[in-house]
Design goal:
Length: 529
C-alpha cells in the first residue's frame, strides 16, 4: 500500500562552480601567444516546482539528500567549462517551504510555481579573463565557489475548499465516496483513514474539492491520535463540515458531545500564522463557516437521534443536514449548501482589490564600504575579523598554493579599503586577521603587502612580495635598522673629524662636499669665484 508523507526535512545543495584554467596559447612561430585559459562553469541550482501529478512527499522521505551537478572546469584555447544541470524536484500543490527554525521561505500554490531551494556556485575566471594592460600573462586563475547548502522543511497543506471533520468512523470517507469519484479505504473500525483523501464535487455550475481529514479525538490539538498530525490540511479550506455519527453504539458518545469535543480541539489548534491568504490574514478554524451533517439516518436509531439533536443544533446557529452516505439521502442538498459557501468565498476573493507589493529600491549608500571589521580577542591577543560578501567570496576564489593568486587577493582587499580600515581599527603588524566567520581564513597581517602586484616583473605564478616570506622583517625592525645605519654614519663622520683635527687628514669632510660641486663646474679649488 502506498504511504502518505506530508512533512519531510530535505537536505539540498547546489552544484559547485568549476575552477578557471591557467593556460598560455601556443602555435607555430608564436610560442607565447598570451593567456587563453577559459572560465569554469556555474554549478546547477536545486529548484522546487509544483507538479499536479505529485501528491505526496514520500520520495523525499526515503531520499532526503539532493545535490545538483557541478560545473565543469575551464580549458585552454578559451574554452569555458560546462554549466551544471539544474535539479528539478516536483512537489505537490500546496507545499510550504520552511527553514529549520520555522520561518516560511515559500508557499508553493499553483501548477508550475517554483522556488530556488539552493543556488549553484559561480565558476572561477580563467587567466584569460584576468589579464589586463599591466598584468599581461597571469599565472593563476580563480577557483569555483561551492553551491549553497541548506536544510529545509517541506509541509504539505491540502488544497481543498471544504474539510470534513469528525470522530473516527463517523462516515467521512463514505461521504466523499458517495459525493465524488474518490475511492478511499472504508471499514467499520476506527482510524481506518490514515491519509487525507480528496474528492471533486460538482453541484450545479460550481465545482469544488472536499478533503477527508483523518479522525479527530479529544486531545488531538496536543498531538494525541492522528488529528494534530493532519490538522494542517484544514488550514486552506474555506469552510468546515462536521460529520456527526447518529448511529454510534457507544454509550458515552452522542452527536452533541462529539461536536463539543471537535469544536474544542479546533479552538485549541494554533493555525500557522505564517501562511496568509489573499487578504494577508489567517482566519482561525473555529471562525470559518461551518455546516453539520447528521450521518447514518438510514438506520432506525440514527433517524431518531438526528430528529432529537437537530433542534438543539439549529438553536446554536448551525445549518443542519440529515444525510446517509449509504442511501445517498440528503446529499444533494448538502452539496448545494457547500457550493454556496465556496462560491461566496471565491466571489469575495475576486471582488477584493489585488494587493501588489510595492517595489522597494534600496540603493547602495555612497559611503558603504561593502565590509565591516569586528575586533575580538583570542588568547589575550587582538584579532580582527573582516566580514563582507566580497572579501569572503574572494577568499574562496583564491588558490593559496599560488603566490601570484595571493598577491592578487591582497591587491583586491587593499583596493576595497580593508588595509586602510585595519589601520583605523588600530591593527599592528603581526596581528591576526580573519576573513569570514567561524570557518574563515586566518592571516598574520603584514601592512607592507599592499598594492603593487600590477607592476610585477617576476615569473608567472610568483610574487616578489612573498619571496623569503619567513625572513621578512617587520616595520619596527626596519625602523631599528634604519636608525642603526644613521648612528653608524654619524659615528664614522665623528671619527674622521677627530682624525683630521689630529693632523692625520688635511681636509675636513665638509670641505669635500664643497669641492665636489666645484669640480663639476670646472673651477679649481684655488680659482677665484
Amino acid at each position: 500500500m502506498a504511504s502518505f508523507v506530508d512533512r519531510v526535512v530535505l537536505h539540498v545543495s547546489g552544484g559547485s562552480g568549476g575552477h578557471g584554467c591557467v593556460s598560455v596559447h601556443r602555435e607555430k612561430f608564436k610560442p607565447l601567444g598570451g593567456p587563453d585559459g577559459g572560465n569554469g562553469g556555474n554549478g546547477g541550482d536545486v529548484i522546487l516546482r509544483v507538479d499536479h501529478q505529485t501528491t505526496t512527499l514520500l520520495d523525499y522521505h526515503h531520499a532526503p539528500h539532493r545535490h545538483a551537478s557541478n560545473g565543469g572546469p575551464g580549458m585552454g584555447d578559451w574554452r569555458g567549462g560546462k554549466n551544471g544541470e539544474t535539479l528539478i524536484l516536483p512537489v505537490p500543490d500546496g507545499t510550504v517551504v520552511k527553514s529549520k527554525d520555522g520561518t516560511v521561505l515559500a508557499d508553493l500554490v499553483g501548477e508550475g510555481t517554483e522556488y530556488v531551494a539552493a543556488a549553484g556556485g559561480i565558476g572561477g575566471l580563467g587567466n584569460a579573463a584576468l589579464s589586463s594592460q599591466k598584468r599581461r600573462a597571469p599565472g593563476f586563475a580563480l577557483l569555483g565557489i561551492e553551491g549553497e547548502a541548506s536544510d529545509i522543511v517541506l509541509e504539505l497543506k491540502s488544497i481543498a475548499d471544504i474539510a470534513l471533520v469528525g470522530y473516527p468512523s463517523a462516515g467521512k470517507s463514505s461521504l466523499i465516496a458517495a459525493m465524488s469519484a474518490a475511492r478511499p479505504k472504508i471499514a467499520d473500525y476506527p482510524f481506518t483513514t490514515l491519509v487525507p483523501n480528496l474528492g471533486v464535487v460538482q453541484a450545479g455550475d460550481v465545482r469544488f474539492t472536499i478533503a477527508d481529514v483523518p479522525g479527530l479525538i479529544e486531545g488531538a490539538s496536543e498531538g494525541k491520535g492522528l488529528g494534530h498530525h493532519f490538522l494542517r490540511h484544514v488550514e486552506r479550506c474555506a469552510a468546515l463540515v462536521h460529520v456527526l455519527d447518529c448511529g454510534t453504539l457507544e454509550a458515552d458518545r452522542d452527536p452533541l458531545s462529539d461536536l463539543a469535543v471537535i469544536e474544542a480541539e479546533l479552538e485549541k489548534y494554533a493555525v500557522d500564522m505564517s501562511y496568509a491568504g489573499q487578504d494577508g490574514e489567517v482566519v482561525p478554524l473555529n471562525h470559518r463557516p461551518r455546516l453539520v451533517a447528521l450521518n447514518k439516518v438510514d438506520l432506525p436509531d440514527g433517524k431518531d437521534m438526528a430528529e432529537f439533536v437537530r433542534p438543539e443544533l439549529e438553536s446554536r446557529g448551525y445549518r443542519v443536514f440529515e444525510i446517509s452516505a449509504t442511501s445517498h439521502e440528503g446529499l444533494r442538498r448538502l452539496g448545494f449548501a457547500m457550493a454556496e459557501i465556496v462560491q461566496a468565498a471565491r466571489d469575495a476573493v475576486a471582488a477584493a482589490p489585488p494587493k501588489v507589493q510595492p517595489v522597494v529600491i534600496k540603493p547602495r549608500a555612497v559611503n558603504e564600504a561593502g565590509f565591516r571589521i569586528r575586533r575580538e580577542e583570542k588568547g589575550l591577543e587582538p584579532l580582527f575579523r573582516v566580514i563582507g560578501e566580497k572579501p569572503e567570496r574572494w577568499v574562496k576564489q583564491t588558490d593559496f598554493t599560488n603566490e601570484e593568486a595571493i598577491g592578487y587577493l591582497a591587491d583586491r582587499l587593499a583596493k576595497l579599503g580593508v588595509e586602510t580600515e585595519l589601520f583605523k581599527q588600530g591593527a599592528k603588524p603581526g596581528d591576526t586577521v580573519v576573513i569570514g566567520e567561524d570557518d574563515g581564513v586566518v592571516f598574520d597581517w603584514e601592512p607592507t603587502m599592499m598594492a603593487g602586484a600590477e607592476l610585477l616583473a617576476s615569473p608567472r605564478g610568483t610574487d616578489v612580495r612573498f619571496a623569503d616570506l619567513g625572513d621578512r622583517p617587520t616595520r619596527g625592525q626596519k625602523r631599528e635598522e634604519q636608525q642603526e645605519r644613521k648612528d653608524a654614519k654619524a659615528a664614522a663622520r665623528a671619527e674622521l673629524e677627530a682624525e683630521r683635527k689630529a693632523g692625520i687628514w688635511t681636509e675636513s669632510v665638509s670641505s669635500r662636499r664643497v669641492a665636489k660641486p666645484l669640480k663639476e663646474s670646472g673651477l679649481g679649488a684655488d680659482d677665484d669665484l
